[in-house]
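This section describes the prediction task in plain terms. A model, or a person checking by hand, is given the sequence of a single protein chain and must write out its three-dimensional structure as a string of tokens. No templates, partner chains or ligands are provided. The sample shown here is typical of the held-out split.
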Amino acid sequence: MHELTVHADLLSIRDIGPWLREVAGDAVAADALESFAMKCELAVQELAVNIVTHGYDGEPGPDDHITLVGTIVDGAVQIVITDGAKEYRPDEQAAPAADEPQVHGYGLMIVRQLTRRFDHERVDSVNTTTLEFPLPGGQP
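The expected answer:
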């Protein structure tokens, strides 16, 4: 199990990429690690940016943070993200219309396309999002 806690600001979330490579490195062959980690990073950073910009309205307090826990489960890298930002409901967000270009709104669609599992729940004042990325080539 690997854990990372970052301050809920856009500058701090850049620490997520190297951490994801560490998590995935436990189960992914070296020749596949970079492309696999980039896929994971894209999805996780999309969510982290949403947490900062929408959940904390781009103005997190000094004690606001995002915690990530990474494990290998059932042939996948599982990332559990928790935060204390305001509630959001990803299942209620409309997918972007294919024939209407827009600037925002593609993040959750990207996350859904890159994961085999994307669950979200809110308990008390904590958002918990679980993502699973299948390991390449059926690795354990």
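For orientation: The two ends are 15 Å apart (CA to CA).
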